[in-house]
Amino acid sequence: MAYSEEKRLAVRRSFVYDKKSLQHAAALHEVNYQTARAWKKKSNHDGDNWDKARAASRMAGGGVGEMSAEVLEDFARLFQTTIKDLKYGEYTAIQKAEVLSRLSDAYAKTMKAAGGSNPEISTLAVAMETIKELATFIRKNSPEDLERFVSILDPFSQHINRVLTNGKS
């Protein structure tokens, strides 16, 4: 079944900005999941990485601090669960030492990742924050232009994603 460009953009928008899983975004817009996967893969090949755009959107929405806090909170839960399992599970001393070693390594890497972020994603986050401010400005000062702005926003977000991550115009 052939889908319109609007349908593809709607799936992308749900995935990137609404943070829906690709499967949920596809179902939401009545698109076959395999088709949505193919669109995402083709877009990535063309320089529009939906995952990077999603991460940038997340950063623009809540900032790096909020995203880092969320990652650290998830890791802390996993850490606690693993330690509890080590305490009460039936493991040899060697197995416990191995798990603790891996957990310590994961902790160090997680802390490092939370402290610094991907520069491409940071750049995209700034671009998205700017676009969001432009939308607010247009809505407030030039509402008659808002519909036109919205109609070019999706294709432009793909363009800016390609330019900032791959240098392709």
Number of strands: 0
Class by helix and strand content? mainly alpha
Spans where pLDDT lies below 50 across 5 or more residues: none
Q: Please compute the radius of gyration using only Cα atoms.
A: 21 Å
Distance between the termini: 30 Å
Average pLDDT reading: 78
User: Beta-strand level of the residues, as a percent range?
Assistant: under 5%
State the major sheet.
none
Q: Please give the count of helices.
A: 7
**Multimeric state of these chains?**
single chain
Envelope shape? elongated
Give the tally of structural domains.
3
**What is the helical fraction, as a range of percent?**
over 70%
What is the helix/strand order?
Answer: HHHHHHH
What would a concise description of this structure say?
With 169 residues, the protein is mostly helical. Helix content is 82%, strand content 0%.
Write the topology of this structure.
Blueprint: H1 5-16, H2 22-28, H3 33-45, H4 50-88, H5 93-115, H6 119-141, H7 146-166
Helix pairs in contact: 1-2, 2-3, 4-5, 4-6, 6-7
